[in-house]
Design brief:
- Residues 42-197 form the MyTH4 domain.
- Residues 202-410 form the FERM domain.
- The chain contains 18 helices and five strands.
- By secondary structure, the protein is α+β, with helices and mostly antiparallel strands.
- The protein folds into three domains: 41-197, MyTH4 domain (Serine Threonine Protein Phosphatase 5, Tetratricopeptide repeat), CATH 1.25.40.530; 202-288, Ubiquitin-like (UB roll) (Roll); 310-409, Up-down Bundle (Acyl-CoA Binding Protein).
- Strand 3 and strand 4 form a beta hairpin.
- The protein is elongated and about 100 Å long.
Length: 410
Amino acid sequence: MMEFAMLYFRRPKNISNVGDSLTTQRKKKEWTWKDISDKVKYTERPISHSLLRLDSNEADKLAQDAFLCIMRYMGDENLKRGQTFTDCVYELLMICHQYHALRDEVYCQIIRQTTSNKSSRSDSLIRGWRLFSIVTAYFDCSQVLKPYLFKHLIEMANDSRRAYHGTAHICLQNLAKTFKYGGRKFLLSGREVEAITTGKNLKRQLYHLPGGHKKVVNTKAVTVVEEIIQELCLELNIRSPTEQQEFCLCYILEIENIMKLLSNDEYILDICTELEHKKKEYFLLLKRTVWIHPLRLDNILYIDVMFFQIVPDYIEGLLIAPKPATLSAAFLEEVSFIGALLHLSDCNEQTKVSPQNAMNLLPKTIVTMRSGEQWAERINHKLCMIDANMNSTEARAKFLGSFLVQFYLD
């Protein structure tokens, strides 16, 4: 950072600039390496001017306010009456959000306060790095600062002798994600601020899969939807990136009967924070939305997930042609056999299907075209033709592999 400071930091009035005349330079002192070094090292006093050369007095004042936020969060300056550490974080993020030109300034300030930190408070340094991790999750920097900032973080993260090298590595990952995905969009919750402040960088977030299956995934501040899809797909033994792209993550608001598909570049904790702020009851669900790759039957969880996603649509009549005027013999055979498999998929032994139950095993668009007794007779006839030892998983696999693929993918 010394090189960056020499090129772009504000110089004191009594220090000569490169463009000064010879006469002016003789009257002023040269800016020494010690002067520059002091500008990039921790200070226990608030700054009276911005570190960078800014274009207005307003920006200079905001830079001073930002520095006070950093000092208060790190414990090196007293909080204002009624102020919390979370308030300090919010104020700093709002300054960066509203004044893009100050993002470089804030990064330089945090680097300064985490370099050669000699605070009397034992937790000042680690708090500074944790604040660093929050800011890198939200904001990028200019192309001018970018190489210097990445170089600084790489050096800190790779030095295992430093107690905070792990947090520096988190900052490095966060910043890379921010440049790739644009940074977090919603203010993190008070609980998230408290968790990060105490060194907890992961949230055990629950994700749902069709069929009642659930998976807890350690979710970081910068985890995006795409990463969760990849992790859940690995649980289903889906390792091909192109096949993983056929899945999406959505949130479900059960009370309001709303489902929203999420973009791959959305931040998980942004989604959760927004919904929780609105006091919505929700859950996150993996769903297959594209059907290019063929169904595979090599994983029990995969079979269950595909089965329980497809069956509701099949029963609603969404997977077959519009209601036909008549039912062909071949079609009756197919839906009766599928009905038998659906019956077996719900139990591990063959039992007769009653007329009432038969009506729940067929698409709603055709179920009224025959009586319950007629459907039950056809389904029970098909049951007699199926291996008596077939279990529910095998029935679900047969359902997917033999007949429903024809309806769904043809």
